[in-house]
Each structure stands twice: as C-alpha cells, then as structure tokens.
Amino acid sequence: xxxxxxxxxxxxxxxxxxxxxxxxxxxxxxxxxxxxxxxxxxxxxxxxxxxxxxxxxxxxxxxxxxxxxxxxxxxxxxxxxxxxxxxxxxxxxxxxxxxxxxxxxxxxxxxxxxxxxxxxxxxxxxxxxxxxxxxxxxxxxxxxxxxxxxxxxxxxxxxxxxxxxxxxxxxxxxxxxxxxxxxxxxxxxxxxxxxxxxxxxxxxxxxxxxxxxxxxxxxxxx
Length: 222
Fold this sequence. Notes:
alpha+beta, Jelly Rolls, six-stranded antiparallel beta sheet, five-stranded antiparallel beta sheet, 3 helices, globular, PGF-CTERM sorting domain-containing protein, transmembrane helix, transmembrane
C-alpha cells in the first residue's frame, strides 16, 4: 500500500480527518505465490470479493489478486467495498488480462444507498505494444458504498478473471453537507413585503409617521 501526495486530498484530511488518497498495490499480502485464497480478501481499507463464491488466488512478483482463476469456480463479478469507512471514492484500477478473457471489456458500476449512481466501461486490460497490463482511470466514482466489476453487457455470461494489481482510492466516513441555497426573491415576495423602520424602509416609515402626526394635530385644532 502506498500513500499518494495530493493537495486536494490533504485539504480534506485537514478539514475532516477521515479522507486520504491511497494506492493499494497488495504488497502487504502474506500469501504465498499462487496461493488459493477465500472468495473475500481484506486489506487495510478495502473488502475485495469474488462474487458468488468465485475463486481467488494471491500472486507475488508482482503482487496481485487473481479472482476467477479456477474455471470451475468463476467470478461473475469483482466487488470492492470500504472496510472501516462508510464511503469510497475510486480513482483508478490497474490490472492485467494475461490469459485473455472471452470478453475483454468490463463495466465498472458504483452504488450508493442500493442504487447505481455511476458506470464506466474499462478495458481491455492488456497492451499489445508493451505486452503488459493497463491502468484504467475512472471518473465519477465519488463517495460510493460499493463497486462492481463485471463483463461488458454484450457478453452472454459475466466471467471476470484478471490480475488485479492496484486500486487508487480515497475513503471517508460522511458525505459532505451542502448548505441549502437561499430562496430567490420573486416579484410576488416584493409586492407583499412590509417596509421596516430599518435600512431603506426607514425613510418610508418616517414619512408615514410624520403624516399621522400632522393629521392628529389638525384634528385637535378642529
């Protein structure tokens, strides 16, 4: 796991104390090379799950998780959730599709309160030019509670199996509170308003009060 310097994120830390930018590279994994793991793996901040009891293994050199490696226990999706915090902002995913998935394109979806709030296509996670994996930059995955990575909708069956090598993210405990915008003043509001003896209405009130005094004085004289 590697901290990423980020001015904007540093501001969040100073203000809220609960958000930071991190790249999880799985270099803290205690697994042996190609060790079969459970369907769910915990890092410091994340819960990573191979959906439906799918297979998962840990590899080293480079460190990575390999969901869906066993075709008899396929992973229909890879799910990423915050472990000790309420919300997750996902910025990038690094992966290598070394064994060429039948459907090279993936769809990443973000959920909040059980509703899908963002989706983005990702892949292929392989570069023929460099013969290596790819880091996919994500946009709009801000303050979600759950992220699902599935095969593209065009695939007849979702079957996800690639080396998950890095996840760039932030975690936080609360959504920022946005103060309500002031209600705009309408013509109807202006027509129904009553002048006050303060500010611009002071002169109007003074004139009205002086007129009443004159009427009362004339009445007494009569």
